[in-house]
Write a structure and sequence with these properties.
Elements (H helix, E strand, L loop, with lengths): L19 E5 L3 E5 L1 E7 L3 E6 L3 E14 L3 E14 L1
Antiparallel strand pairs: 1-2, 2-6, 3-4, 4-5, 5-6
Length: about 80
């Protein structure tokens, strides 16, 4: 009987090192894996994560809650960019 071969997955596939983004519509976003806020404006919030920098654009953006590893953003989000 042959042993099943384990395929090597690319490093970017490892969800343990990448941020987790949870969205409720376009009004509330939670980012787990945050390491800090780089930019805080009402139309743009940039968050540093364990992976890429994530930039949220919209209107009336604000941080509702921040912990050591997560950030909760509220407002009207129109665009998200991932900056590696």
């Amino acid at each position: 009987m042959k042993k099943p071969q384990i395929q090597n997955r690319p490093s970017y596939f490892d969800a343990g090192t990448q941020p987790l983004i949870e969205m409720t519509g376009n009004r509330q976003i939670t980012v787990e894996g945050s390491t800090g806020i780089l930019l805080y404006e009402s139309e743009n919030i940039k968050i540093n994560t364990t992976g890429p920098i994530i930039s949220f654009f919209g209107r009336g953006l604000g941080v509702r809650c921040i912990t050591g590893s997560s950030v909760e953003i509220s407002g009207f989000v129109t665009k998200i960019e991932f900056i590696s």
